[in-house]
């Protein structure tokens, strides 16, 4: 029997993969998707979406404890962890099911199974004991990534958790250690700390949220500590001694090694690309530290083979993967596609307070040789923030002093993950300070702080 032939085969149905498939189908391509686990990939099933559902429950719980501030009463406030987890899983299931509907709507063939590339233009799909080969001139790798496991700190699902274990927590940690203060680590630290866990965060670098602007990191740390978290920077977890019901962590800093006891550890020390077992090396695909090396158009150097999303390297963000999927599908369909500009991709962390940023930090802008103008505006100066009871936060903007170009924007506070898109659009359109100063922001809104931060960079702030 002849192998089924397609114009484009996408391996992996996470955000980048399923978006690439949909866009390809929209452009008239005959498309197939191969997925080994579940439609929607890590993001919809085990990442972005279910974590936000958990964090929403924690946010509501936090607000219930503040009821008196708002003239309200809420007695015997508590939570049911199993119900919180069940809601999160239901949200993920709903969205994953929606991807299946989109596949059918766009007449995309879905093959559930393990994919390998035995030779150029061929994908072998193993499902159980059967193997089926399908062919296409163009193949898109969108196999994503998984949690990095460090020797001696491996997750076991009992005392030491990965993000997957944390998402379906069967018990509430009493004393929690979170290793790593990137987005994943801080989000889980924020969730469990809000629900009452005695939470310690260990970061090997000199500050939490190390990819963010230093001023924003410092502000966020101050809020985390205020909420009861213990933050240990420039500290390494050297060893975990596990015994029934407890873990003894060996923590090393400049002063030496100390030990501390916890009942739960969450390891959030980065990710590795899912590149194994695909047959990439035999095809001549270059792999660097578990990620496929690609050019600005996500081409691997092997004719007709592309790689998008987490497998193609930083930034490891679902929205970056989705746009790469669109770009690659349009390239394959013969359209004029534009490469993704990393400097216009926002990063969002959904802890409390939220953190969001786009473009260069103040330090990176100076390192790049720019003379900069920097503006800041605090949440305490904004009427909507005070009315919401969310007066802790800051908006910071960085401009090129010579041209007025918006180089970067950095925020910490309530709903900043929604506000950052205004600056993302500004970066994409190569906006200057003049454009932003002349823009009329609605009142009363949190977004007015975006305007005030720009004004402050040029000595024109009105409300501080």
Task: Tell me, briefly, the overall form.
Answer: globular
Mean pLDDT: 95
Largest sheet: 7 strands, mixed
Give me the number of helical elements: 14
Tell me the distance between the termini.
74 Å
Helix content: 25-40%
Structural class: alpha/beta
Strand content: 25-35%
Low-confidence segments, given as residue ranges, are: none
Cα-atom Rg, whole angstroms? Answer: 24 Å
DSSP strand count: 24
Pfam families: Pyr_redox_2, Pyr_redox_dim
GO molecular function, one term: dihydrolipoyl dehydrogenase (NADH) activity
Family: Belongs to the class-I pyridine nucleotide-disulfide oxidoreductase family.
Keywords: Cytoplasm, Disulfide bond, FAD, Flavoprotein, NAD, Oxidoreductase, Redox-active center
How would you summarize what this structure contains?
With 464 residues, the chain is α/β, with parallel strands linked by helices.
Describe the structure.
The structure is a single chain. Helix 1 runs parallel beside helix 9 (about 320-330). This protein has helices at about 15-25, 40-45, 50-65, 80-105, 165, 185-195, 215-225, 280-285, 320-330, 360-365, 385-390, 415-430, 435-440, 450-455; strands at about 5-10, 30-35, 110, 115-120, 120-125, 130-140, 145, 160, 175-180, 200, 230, 235-245, 245-255, 255-260, 265, 270-275, 285-290, 290, 305, 345-350, 355-360, 370-380, 395-400, 405-415. The protein is about 35% helix and about 25% strand. By secondary structure, the chain is an alpha/beta fold. The mean pLDDT is about 95. It contains 14 helices and 24 strands.
Keywords:
alpha/beta; 5-stranded parallel β-sheet; FAD
